[in-house]
Amino acid sequence: MIRIEKLTKTFDTFQAVDHMSFEVPQGAFLVLVGPSGCGKSTMLRMLAGLELPSGGTVQFGDDTVSDGDKGWMIDPAKRNTGLVFQSYALWPHMTVAGNVDWPLKVAGMSKPDRQARVSEVLAMLGIEALAARYPNEISGGQQQRVAIARMIAPRPAILLFDEPLSNLDAKLRVEMRTELLRVHRATGATSVYVTHDQVEAMTMASHVAVLNGGKIEQFGTPEELVRDPATAFVATFVGTPPANLVPVSMLPEQHAKGLRADALAMYRPENITSSAEASANSMAFEFAEASPVAGRTMLTGTQGPLRVTAVVDNAPRLQIGDMVHFGLPETPAAMFAPNGERLS
Ligand SMILES: Nc1ncnc2c1ncn2[C@@H]1O[C@H](COP(=O)(O)OP(=O)(O)OP(=O)(O)O)[C@@H](O)[C@H]1O
Ligand SMILES: [Mg+2]
């Protein structure tokens, strides 16, 4: 349904998006996730037709909608896409119903059809009761629902979201994730969702593209990324909590045996044990923080710049300044080269 090939965007000499390629089927919920400045919004703007690629192509179904190599693209209004930003400006002088009605009017839909469709989408988002209110008379979360209702009203085939929930409080954000997925399913659309929050990505996505420095570090399902991270960046970016990377040079002798001396060894938090006492094969860390998670304890220790997090059943009682000893499994879950490339 959406296929991008070698998509590139250069601002002056800076490559914001650097030869990205992937494809997702109809109905996919693709999440683009990565740190600030990695090119997520630029990518989404190229999908929306708001930004002409410097190279590469965007295809929706069988249609090429942007061709950076030839330097042309189809108008945003002719792409059958809907777009919601973080700062979803509703039209302040129009009611909720008026806001949702506007794109239908622009599309030339008849009045009775528009009325029916407005009622339908307001009901889908649970905001029928707000139809006659103005944007300044409803809450931030309600405004967000109106923005989504307005986006889906004209039945776009592709829904584009740029950090749409980041203005909401934590609880509402979690509720709205479910809500958005429900809307996505109900419309049958293909969605592309941008966030810097890996938890949001991992909970919502059917497909994830992890971006870093304008490049795709890995493309896959949330399960694949956690089970089989392709790079050191992905290993430490996804998962709750993410995996730990320990330089082989810092490992206890027994553990380092047979491993490449300059490599990074990956250990999953759930496979590390903790103790207040040192043992032959444990590593000593300064206790940094502990928090309860689902009946277990998430425990973080530091050794210089190295931070290691374990999720354990029986955590020793620790205070700042105490030492904690982590027992690592004999074999690391993965190995990475110093440049982040996966070795094994
Ligand atoms: N119009 C522009 N001119 C020059 N540089 C730009 C322009 N738009 C974006 N950039 C640069 O391209 C890079 C990617 O920007 P982009 O907005 O895509 O990042 P992002 O991943 O969405 O980040 P954030 O999570 O902070 O929103 C950044 O370094 C940004 O400064
Ligand atoms: Mg952005």
General form = globular
Q: What is the quaternary state of this protein?
A: single chain
Largest sheet: 6 strands, mixed
Q: In terms of structural class, how would the helical and strand content be classed?
A: alpha+beta
Please identify which CATH superfamily of the largest domain we are dealing with: P-loop containing nucleotide triphosphate hydrolases
Q: What is the name of the CATH architecture of the largest domain?
A: 3-Layer(aba) Sandwich
Mean pLDDT across all amino acids: 94
Low-confidence stretches: none
Number of domains: 2
How are the strands ordered across the major sheet? 7-8-9-3-10-11
At the first level of CATH, the class of the largest domain is Alpha Beta
Alpha carbon gyration radius: 24 Å
Tally the beta strands.
Answer: 19
Percent of residues in helical segments? Answer: 25-40%
Cofactors and ligands:
adenosine-5'-triphosphate, magnesium ion
Would you kindly provide a brief summary of this structure?
It is built from nine helices and 19 strands. Helix 5 links the parallel strand 8 and strand 9.
Please name the defining characteristics of this protein:
alpha+beta; Rossmann fold; OB fold (Dihydrolipoamide Acetyltransferase, E2P); 6-stranded mixed beta sheet; 5-stranded antiparallel beta sheet; 9 helices; 19 strands; binds magnesium ion
